[in-house]
């Protein structure tokens, strides 16, 4: 049997004939199995004289006569209690889907089917303008007109395996049960996808992520989306995700929530994490302290190079917080800094206080962000430590935080 390729829109609403020539009804929908990688038709919804009934997709023959598709069912068998089923018209057509390779949300305008010896399979979705025109009945006549001028209507398809393909409660977004494809996307791409979806669908995807991954995605979202998601998530889950984020990022996000919600979240978070965030939120918006992160690496000056490297291996710090390794005394007062290069080229037994740079540039937590920007620009710094009046190390400000602040606010200084 040759492969017959057709579109869902071309057979929906068509009459289904019985062997004796009588009409069973009109095709309303096709149900495909979601238990297989390539969804195969297992049922059909038929509008009969006595109402809509579901039949097994068995003994169905599709033939093309005079440019139209004819459906015949030689032995209709009603279907009951089917599991793992996706209705192509109800659950997929006109719905938003996630194009994983394209890293975006698109709309399904039609569905391409393939009739093989083993059955009818859904093989791709049509997201182009031709799909809409086809359903309106304009595709063929318009193609003929355009052909005279050497023009064509571009087709745009996404293969079934390149989309996320299980519906959420038969509503507006198709998702994978395992979300394994979404998990491979960069947090920024995933944040863009969630922002393009309706809130309920976005919450479904966001809730499926493990806490660390969700924290990375939340950081990449726009303020309005962050606020909406945190307001919709259960407080316990939202708090768990916030605990995975740097305290300064959490403080920035909570700034945009109402006070009641902020207190609710902070009270749910672990005490240490909550305390760090509260301290940062107390800084005025113009102060360096409002911009600093409390994630940094600091060692006491009595440690040796070998001991410091061993500690770094245990800490496994993120790459953006080890531009400099700060050296402090037993009271956590800032004494100097070393770089990774300093550690690598120094003898293992050398104390850190012998190789540290004592002429370190720093900022105080109550300095203005405006003055901080001047200092960072003047000395071409990628990070700058922040201390209090007693020179105790409180945190650090990274250059990317300053750039992000300026880009987001459009001002010389502001809290985001």
TrEMBL record:
PANTHER family: MAGNESIUM TRANSPORTER MGTE (PTHR43773:SF1). GO terms for cellular component: membrane. SMART domains: CBS, MgtE_N. The keyword Protein biosynthesis does not apply. Signal peptide: none annotated. This is MgtE intracellular region. Keywords: CBS domain. GO terms for molecular function: magnesium ion transmembrane transporter activity.
